[in-house]
Design a protein that fits this description.
- The protein has helices at residues 13-23, 31-37, 43-49, 51-55, 147-156, 167-179; strands spanning 59-63, 71-75, 162-166, 184-188, 193-198.
- It has 6 helices and 5 strands.
- Among the domains are: 13-81, Arc Repressor Mutant, subunit A, CATH 1.10.10; 147-198, no CATH class.
- The two termini are 126 Å apart.
């Protein structure tokens, strides 16, 4: 931790002099000693550069016990608590590893329509095919249900005859007659039956 009140630039003369006194706290140096040690050409320059160290009590510049002797440089009262500036950056704390997100279950695939089933192919033997002689032609398969029924009723009717039928069969009979171009007339005979007259 750097000392808060004074931190000279690393490698500067104040920094090197303070480090020297930290290594040799009991030593004393004259201006000439420091000039020679740190290759400074002027003793006045030493005094100017180290003035801040004196004002912060890191160094002392005074005479020795002999008041007539030269002034000397020695460790100040606060030098022991001074810490030089360390340009090396403090190791940074590595960032905490990110917590992996919980694995998500894969989405269920959309159901696909099953392909249409094909009818199995049936092979036959042409020689074994059954042939019918004189078989009557049945009513066409595309006819409405009940066609043969209403045709049989119509065959029994003469012009002017009436057949009595429940409501729903009477309606179907009338529809069959219209489809087959038969001329009829329909009248109600009772609350639940109708009469179908053949008119031609």
């Amino acid at each position: 931790m750097n000392f808060p009140f004074f931190t000279p630039e690393p490698g500067s003369l104040p920094d090197r002099v303070l480090r020297l006194f930290q290594r040799q706290p009991t030593e004393e140096f004259t201006d000439q000693d420091l000039a020679a040690k740190f290759q400074v050409t002027s003793t006045a320059k030493i005094k100017a550069l180290l003035a801040a160290c004196i004002s912060h009590d890191l160094l002392r510049y005074d005479r020795d016990t002999d008041p007539t002797g030269p002034k000397v440089w020695r460790a100040g009262p606060k030098l022991a608590s001074w810490q030089p500036f360390d340009p090396t950056p403090a190791p940074s704390t590595p960032p905490a590893a990110a917590t992996p997100a919980p694995a998500q279950r894969p989405a269920a695939p959309f159901p696909q329509a099953s392909p249409p089933k094909r009818r199995p192919r049936i092979d036959f033997d042409p020689a074994a095919a059954l042939v019918h002689k004189g078989l009557p032609l049945p009513p066409r398969a595309g006819g409405a249900p009940g066609d043969s029924k209403y045709a049989a009723v119509w065959a029994r009717l003469q012009v002017g005859d009436c057949v009595e039928l429940p409501d729903r069969p009477a309606h179907s009979m009338a529809s069959w007659c219209k489809k087959n171009k038969r001329r009829i007339t329909v009248r109600r005979l009772s609350p639940t039956t109708k009469g179908v007259w053949r008119t031609a």
